[in-house]
Amino acid sequence: MKKRSAALAVLVVLAVPACRRQAQVGGPPPMPVEVVTLAERAVPQTTEYVGTVKSRRSTNVQPQVEGFITAIKVRSGDSVKPGAALMEIDPSLQDAAVASLESQLVSRQADQQQARQQAARVKTLFEAGASSQAELEQAQTSLSTAEAQVKATDAQLREQRVSLGYHTVRASTAGVVGDVPVRVGDSVTRSTRLTTIDQNAGLELYINVPVQEAANLSVGLPVQIVDTEGKVLATETIAFVSPAVDAATQSVLAKATLQGVRGFRTEQFVRARVVWTERPAIVVPVVALNRVGGQYFAYLAESGDGGKTVARQRGIELGAIVGNDYVVKSGLKPGEKLIVSGVQKIGDGSPVTVQAAGAAAEPKAQAPGAKG
């Protein structure tokens, strides 16, 4: 019995290391992963710019006279109708000019009346033979001069009255009052911007394209307006391309009409993508990539030793992001099998098993006490 027990103990001692060696030789179980077969598809080739939303119905309000502002009758954001009073500019000097011309007109009219009466008397005397032809012509000339002076003074008076009306700044169109940068007491000239009147209708998108990239600009190119996350909010088309280059910015202006687009305001900055063309390219999901030290890597399912499937890491160069995918510039080819799940749990050369989409799961842990 003692010999038999000793023999069994030796067998147990030898069996445990053998089981462990077998586990070490076999390695970890393959990781279930999902793969997709890479193929090219049409991808838009785009360039993103900062665009500005502008209104074709935006009006700058500037005074037509000079002076001091005495009253501001509106606030930013007020809705106004055409002809609504916006501001008052001190009219004191203009009032004095109008009053002076009114007095002159009265005097000129009196001179005209006197000249008319004198001309009538001289004509009566001339017809009776009591006055000469020269006296008649002189009287008629005096009358013509008096009438001309009345007309000139009247024209000057009407001009000054019109200028007096300009001391009340009025809205030329209906809309919403913009920023009011001036204050009561400010001195303004004809070049001073008092405010703006805007309408959120007839909006256009202004895009300044650098002259180096403007060679392919043309009417009809699609333009995508995207949010901060790259989601497309609206797609319009270029309706105008400037024939000239802006000398200050060395850019070419392109415009797109925003038709039926809501939520934008005048002078708002937006992200605008010009879609130049579409060409075939490989795209990969964002979740299928790893980034190490600024370099992107992907895992491909390839055949390994003994007919096993293993994961092979490969560095790739990426282009623009399209939705939830990256455009691949280099590193991958059509027909290769890209691993799209579990990429954080595998390494280069790790054994994997390919499963249908949605079926991949973590391998089950071996139960405690299980034999090797």
Overview of the structural elements:
With 372 residues, the chain is α+β, with helices and mostly antiparallel strands. Among the domains are: 47-57 and 199-278, Elongation Factor Tu (Ef-tu), domain 3 (Beta Barrel), CATH 2.40.30; 64-88 and 170-198, RNA polymerase II/Efflux pump adaptor protein, barrel-sandwich hybrid domain (OB fold (Dihydrolipoamide Acetyltransferase, E2P)), CATH 2.40.50.100; 91-166. It has three helices and 21 strands. It has helices at residues 2-26, 92-127, 133-165, and strands at residues 31-37, 40-55, 59-61, 67-72, 79-80, 85-89, 168-170, 175-177, 187-188, 195-198, 203-210, 222-226, 232-241, 251-257, 269-285, 289-292, 295-303, 309-322, 325-330, 337-339, 352-355. The chain has a six-stranded antiparallel beta barrel with strand order 2-11-14-13-12-15. A four-stranded antiparallel sheet has the order 3-10-8-5, with no helix packed on it. The chain has a four-stranded antiparallel sheet with strand order 7-6-4-9, with no helix packed on it. Helix 2 runs antiparallel to helix 3 (133-165). The longest helix has 36 residues, at 92-127. The two termini are 29 Å apart. The model is unreliable at 5-24 and 359-372 (pLDDT under 50).
